[in-house]
Amino acid sequence: MTIQYLFASLLLALSLTIQSQNIAVQSFQPLPNDLDARVHHPRRDQNGQIAAIIKIVTTQTGFDWEPDMSGIVAVERKTGEYWLWVPRGARRLTIKHDQLGILRNYEYPIPIEGASVYEMVLATGEVRILNNYRNFEATELNESLNKGKEVTITSAPSGAELRINNNLMGNTPWTGMLEYGSYNLRLQHNFEEVIETIAVIQGGKNRW
Predict the structure, then answer these.
(1) Element (H, E) at 94
(2) Using alpha carbons only, how large is the chain's radius of gyration in Å?
(3) Which of 112, 67, 133, 56 minimizes the C-alpha distance to 94?
(4) pLDDT in tens, the chain (208 residues)
(5) For residues 119 and 111, what is the distance between their CA atoms, to the nearest angstrom?
(6) CA gap 87, 49 in Å, rounded
């Protein structure tokens, strides 16, 4: 029997509180022995001076970087990190991401000197596309500080029977707290064809 309905989306959504953050700076430090800014990959700012490089360590992609009035000379995506060339005296950076949100006006804890290299380690949630089956899509937003997440499961039309690990949870829309781990999800609407997927709810790497 063919599917006569479409499950529009399965949203594994982070329940935000004032304390929770999807983007945070875990550490910021100079790399005095790194010669990339001065020797290997120098770039000059609008005043002709050699810019500093901030190496932003993150496994995520899709960021937008908004500088203070000093501007950004260049941005390059590298394996496991972004490189931002910024002028001497840069003071702040706003980090934006469509799924993870915004870290606004992060102030560098130490002065930025020209031709120097700095490392910024980001602690972020994860954005993972778990499945794309017909018009069924699962998106997970992770956050590194909690042991689990509030999950909302929806379907179109609503009223689909939902089973998680073969336990009957009720009908969609359904909201509940799930701990980090893997779950077998099964949705069925009016005895039509079943859609199944595996949802992996996973916390970010907590290095504190």
Answers:
(1) strand 92-97
(2) 22
(3) 67
(4) 222 333 333 333 322 222 234 788 989 999 999 999 999 999 999 999 999 999 999 988 889 999 999 999 999 999 999 999 999 999 999 999 887 888 999 999 999 999 999 999 998 765 443 333 233 333 344 444 456 777 777 777 778 888 888 889 888 888 877 777 777 878 887 766 566 666 666 554 322 1
(5) 13
(6) 8
